[in-house]
Known about the structure:
- Helix 8 runs antiparallel to helix 9.
- Helix content is 47%, strand content 12%.
- The longest helix is centred in the C-terminal third of the chain and has 13 residues.
- It is α/β, with parallel strands linked by helices.
- 35% of the residues are buried.
Amino acid sequence: IIAVGLDSSEIGNPPSKFSxxxxxxxxxGFLCVAHAGEEGPVExxxxxxxxxxAVRIDHGVKCQQDKLLMQRLxxxxxxxxxxxxxxxxxxxxxKMRDHNFKYLLERGFCVTINSDDPAYFDAYIEENYIxxxxxxxxTREQLARxxxxxxxxxxxxxxxxxxxxxxxxxx
Length: 171
């Protein structure tokens, strides 16, 4: 185990509520990730970064509401693990064509395509890739960038990350 994460419903559960356990985890050398900025307000992303010291944000799609936060996420290369089909099922976006994934990707965010509780949302990673590609007309290069971002965002060694990124480049 190398990381601890905050997940589940954001409403009424701001990241600051969990500061004590995340401070302890950080002091023990664990990496921290946090579910923030999907159902909850954009302030939850700030709390996840500043209070929990999260190195990766799960979802984070509401970051678009705060230009300063957007710049920070881009500058720090903070990964956003986006789960498009769950975003639709939860009503974050009305339709997949309204999703901001392509907008974030084109602006240099380290966004990744993920599944979110596949048994509950009835969608695995492949379905999420397909849904985004079909609805947002993502190019092969954009899909490759998203796949590479997933390795950048992972907690693999730099050597392992590069091996997988090089494999994507060979395809």
